[in-house]
Amino acid sequence: MLITRHAEAVAVLSDTRYVPPPVRQDAPAGTLSWLRAQVSRFSTGEVHAERRRLVTERLATLDPAALRQAATAATLERGGDWPDVPTAVLGAALGITDEKRLVGAVAAAAAGYLSGEAGPEADAAVADLVELLSGEGDPIPRITILLQAHAATAGLIANALTHAEPGDDIDGLLRETLRHDPPLKASRRLDRQTGDEVTIDLVAANRDPAVFAEPERFDLTRGPAPHLTFGSGVRPCPASAHALALAAGVLEAVLRPEDAR
Ligand code: HEM
Q: Which domain of life is it from (predicted)?
């Protein structure tokens, strides 16, 4: 079933009858498939609640304002070459100093994280991340944060840049980019009662004329709008403030380097 209306999307995302499609549970430790069986993103019920709690607890130690500042500084330092910045800044905030190793491993593991398409390179990257992050307790919440953030945050920044005009208000630009051009275009669920797969088309739901006036128009003056780009209901993104801070920090340095210095 394909869902395109905003109200139906909210209803599915709020109903525990719909769960993320289950992932393989018997993969060898240290592989990407194994990792997918350890994270909140693909788990349900009490296991999901506990894993989400651990991630949220970690996120609470990261100050969005400090992430924003660090993202601006790192982008300026690299002369505007921003794509590694969100992961490097998050990694540094989580205590990882070997940026090159971290960014390489996160990029390789993140490529198959949502789809589950694992190859030897992704498996090796997961093993490397486990090693890199094992010094300080359970590495899984921090690996979850890094992998969830990687492509989504870069996608948000890249999409915002396609709309950016000199002098734009960066927070408004990000808000409307989230609604109009979500980096993740769809969310999938399984109906536990019928076994049916449900796909929520986030682009369509974010342009539902029942909720958004002139939905196709990219309108910086729209103000806060109830887009579903950070999810909704039972398991929304727990890091929207962090994601927005990283994105705004990068955009400030790219769009207004003189003011950001
Ligand atoms: C600092 C950057 C980010 C971090 C650390 C992060 C972290 C997470 C985590 C841990 C989850 C799983 C929550 C759970 O299982 O309960 C999640 C879910 C989600 N994230 Fe984020 N995220 C980031 C950036 C983004 C961005 C930029 C977007 C989109 C613009 C996004 C959209 C989502 C959505 C839609 C979900 C829910 C998926 C679902 O309902 O199945 N995230 N995020």
A: Bacteria
Torsion of CA 131, 136, 142, 147, to 10 degrees: -20
Please choose, from the candidates 41, 43, 242, the residue with its C-alpha nearest in 3D space to the C-alpha of residue 144. Answer: 41
Indicate the average pLDDT of the chain: 96
Nearest-angstrom CA–CA distance, 67 and 86: 9
245 Cα nearest atom in ligand 1:
1
Q: With contact defined as beta carbons under 8 Å apart, do 71 and 85 qualify?
A: yes
H helix runs in the chain, sequence order? 6-13, 32-36, 45-59, 64-77, 85-93, 99-113, 120-132, 140-163, 170-180, 202-205, 240-255, 257-260
CA 116 to chain centre: 16
Which residues line the pocket of ligand 1, CB cutoff 6 A? 20, 40-41, 52, 55, 144-145, 148-149, 152-153, 156, 178, 182-184, 187, 229-231, 235-239, 242-243, 246
Q: pLDDT of 113-144, one tens digit each? A: 999 998 999 999 999 999 999 988 999 999 99
- Section 248-259 average pLDDT: 93
Interatomic CA distance for residues 14 and 16, integer angstroms: 7
What's the confidence (pLDDT) of residue 107? 97
Q: Give the residue-averaged pLDDT of 75-89.
A: 98
Could you tell me the two tokens for 222? Answer: 């729209």
3-state SS track over 133-164: CHHHCCCHHHHHHHHHHHHHHHHHHHHHHHHC
Handedness of CA 88, 94, 107, 183 (dihedral sign): negative
- Domain 2-260: give its CATH code: 1.10.630.10
pLDDT of residue 167: 84
